[in-house]
Structure formats: C-alpha cells, structure tokens
Amino acid sequence: MADHSAQQVVDTVAWVLIEDGRILCGRPRGKDVFFIPGGKREPGETDTETLVREVAEELSVAIDPESAAHVGTYAAPVPGHDNLIVTMACYTADYRGVLTASSEIEALAWFSLADRDRVPPVDQLLFDDLAAAGLLR
Fold first, then answer.
1. pTM score, whole prediction
2. How would you label 60-91 residue by residue, b for 16+ Cβ within 10 Å and e otherwise?
3. Which domains does the chain have, with CATH numbers?
4. pLDDT below 70 — which residues of the chain?
5. In which order are the strands placed within the sheet that holds 8-15?
6. Ranges for the Nudix hydrolase domain (predicted)?
C-alpha cells in the first residue's frame, strides 16, 4: 500500500545570471511570482541538458554547456502544497543571443536582495547564499 504522506519532489535546474549585483528573474504568464530562469528536468536529462533546453525555451538564448558551473543545490517546500518539495540545482553559464522573454514568460526583471520576498522559498535560499558571497546586493 502506498504511503500518501510521503513527500513528492519536483526536480528542477536553474540558471543564475548576475549582472551588477542583480539576478535575472522571470514571471511566467498567469503567475504573480517571479522565478530564477529554468525548469523541470525531463526523464533522462542531465542538469546541463535541462539548463540548455529550459533557458532556450524561456529566454531565447543559447547556453554554452561547457561553461556551466554548479553554484549550489537547494530544496524547500512549495507554498500551499504540504507534501511537495522543490529541489533546484543552480548553475552559472555563458550564453549567446539577446535575452528575450518567450511566450512562456510575461516579464523579466533584475532583482536585488531587497526583492527576495518576490520569489519562492527555494529561490530565497539562493538569494541568501549569493548575498552572503557578496554577489547580490
């Protein structure tokens, strides 16, 4: 018999793009929360493959897979979903192209630490680490 109290995990990969002490975030269509760009891993995908695919879908730029560097992996509950945890493997990476919100993304914004409360709990953990490292102001 299945244990329905077991927590489910949403496995995601995110792109950390910082410029001038601010991090790029996007707001998907129909949502009021901003997220670090990225998304859910497809079955069999590596972190880098997920990163390249999701960033291309959301921001219309090409990630250089060779430049991808792991920043950290974070986990936090999903607000309003008691048994749901999101894990987020975060990477920096170089890119080619012009950052453009795709059909999935309604708005792009550069967030500072002061915008921490505008992103989900898992993203807030990343914000805290980046601020502690002096990368996010």
1. 0.92
2. ebebeeeebeebebbebeeeeeeeeebebbbb
3. 8-132 (3.90.79.10)
4. 1-5
5. 38-40, 8-15, 81-92, 69-78
6. 8-132
